[in-house]
Amino acid sequence: MQQAVRLFFEKIPHTVLAIAFMVTAGVLVTFMQTGVKLLSGELHPFAIVFFRAFLVLFILSPAIFYKGVGVLATSSYPLQITRGLFGGSGMVCVFTGLSLVPLAEATTLLFTVPIFATLLSILFFRESVGIRRWTAILFGFAGTIVVMRPDIALSAGHLMLLYAAFAWSVCVLIAKKLTKSDNVLSITFWQAVGSAPIGFILCLYVWQWPDMRQLLFLFGIAGLGTFGHLLMYAALQRGSVSFILPLDYLRIIWSTTIGIFIFADIPGLNLYIGGALIVGATSFITLRELKLKKQPKTDLPPPEPSSG
Length: 308
What we know:
Blueprint: H1 2-11, H2 14-39, H3 45-67, H4 77-98, H5 103-110, H6 113-125, H7 131-148, H8 156-178, H9 184-203, H10 212-238, H11 241-248, H12 250-262, H13 269-294
Helix pairs in contact: 2-10, 2-12, 3-4, 3-9, 3-10, 4-8, 4-9, 5-12, 5-13, 6-8, 6-13, 7-13, 11-13
């Protein structure tokens, strides 16, 4: 049976699989965020964070049992711990922000991850960034201001989502290094191990035992998030980032549609304008980075500074 499934997928072009995996991942992550927003009216977001991380360990246990505990080996525990701390704090802010901000706005603000990742690359990796990418960064942050409308009210939910985007950008940079030596299952597992204690400590102050319906809901949230991220990694393994990235922006459509029909959140003009600025800026940054990476490296003459 396993061999038949492998042969079936091998016959499908990688591009088709990448599209299917990424679109499906976006739908699953959007449903997970919807579940968090719905359940946050009954359980505190801190408790949802804990169960989201803790239940991942049960969800991954069949794969770990099948492949053996050696699959969880990592090349750097310090990096895994750092990633877990940022990922856990980011998850706390995402889930809390989802309880305070319309789903479409939350999704749009989380698309600022590539902008923060570029800034971190400049600060910590001394990456050379030219006027075009600096302009894209400024346009991206202008988009976040348009979405948040600080002239009317700057909510804690918006600020939490921005921190979550920053924290996830740190996780992305660390994951780029880890994926050179660690497998996806290991990275997913240690992310959950790092996030669960943070959620547990915070939810002690607001603890309540979930009933059976809520527990099933929490399993659904954990499952959707886990498989969504696994599919996203699988898509990136089969397609280029420049091709895959625009597919992730379909989540704006899913979140806006769900927000209208389930939460009665009618998006304003500021969301469309700000969303366009953020999507445009992050797309340009990604495409520009790929273009610069493809440029041939030569010793003579010395390379000119990037106009990026």
